[in-house]
């Protein structure tokens, strides 16, 4: 445990940030699974709708440095590729 006052404050802040980042990442993960489920079911319209919300959440997370911007781009790219492939079938 920290003894210095500023270290105690940083510990509190890091715990709050960790929980916030964790919930953001979990929300992205859940939305991603919804897109993949819609693609598997063949419902491309629903997949596209959910994809827009995933893209928005991923971009916000990247802007706040919760995830790396390249990771955000990779998630969006992979999901859009799966949606395009399901449209072609």
Task: Work out the number of β strands.
Answer: 0
Within the CATH hierarchy, at the fold level, what is the topology? Methane Monooxygenase Hydroxylase, Chain G, domain 1
CATH superfamily caption: Ribosomal protein S20
- Quaternary structure classification: single chain
Order of helices and strands: HHH
Question: How would you sum up the global shape?
Answer: elongated
Task: Detail the poorly predicted runs.
Answer: none
Question: Helix- and strand-based class?
Answer: mainly alpha
Distance between the terminal alpha carbons, to the nearest Å?
58 Å
Q: Give the averaged pLDDT, no decimals.
A: 96
Q: What is the count of structural domains?
A: 1
Please describe the biggest sheet, giving its number of strands, its sense, and whether it closes into a barrel. none
């Amino acid at each position: 445990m920290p003894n210095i006052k500023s270290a105690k404050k940083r510990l509190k802040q890091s715990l709050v940030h960790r929980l916030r980042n964790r919930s953001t990442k979990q929300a992205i993960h859940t939305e991603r699974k919804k897109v993949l489920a819609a693609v598997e079911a063949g419902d491309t319209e629903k997949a596209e709708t959910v994809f827009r919300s995933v893209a928005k959440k991923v971009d916000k997370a990247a802007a706040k440095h919760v995830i790396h911007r390249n990771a955000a781009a990779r998630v969006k790219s992979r999901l859009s590729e799966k949606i395009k492939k399901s449209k072609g079938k």
